[in-house]
User: What shape does this take?
Amino acid sequence: MKKILIATGNKGKKKEMLSFFQGIKGIEFLSLKDFPEGEEPEEDGQDFEENAMIKAKYFAEKFNISTLGEDSGLKLTAFPEKFGLKTKREIQAKDDNEWLRKFLEMLEGAEDRTATFYSGIGYFDPETKTEKTFLGKTSGIITEFPQTPLEHGIAVSSVFIPDGGDNVYSAMTKNDKNKVSHRGKSVRQMGEFLGKLI
Assistant: This one.
């Protein structure tokens, strides 16, 4: 059975990604918790797909295993120079609750609360040198207050309503969210690609 490492320590991301891969037979998906702890690569790419591939290649070559890397972020219309590739690092906080509080405080008074989520995902096989990337994006609006309890690792999901929707990401059923979310779009494409490899 082929083994593929999902190179993330973010429980929320891993859970979402696995939900798309469950139907793929012949692949065992591992996480970074199955390997020794170590340094993470510097994600200095020019876009989300480059960062995803940097992560995928780093861990693939480090552990000699086919690897999936994912990089996601949010771009705000009101603050085009902020967030994006450095979304999580833009605000210094001790936990998700503090991060989201500071995020919403920054948006107080903003006339335009529209935003777009991006997810780049990359696959690299160190043996065959096969590599592939996909990008998913979803636009929507940021609410003034959290609509649901925070999900660990994906706090903005409680304040982001995708275009055409009535609920924030976190209030949607898993199936409904997977259909419209940025990560759902990128990971679904990757799942189709991986299914053809086996």
User: Anything to note?
Assistant: The chain has one domain: 2-197. The beta strands are 2-6, 27-31, 66-76, 114-124, 131-142, 160-162. The mean pLDDT is 91.
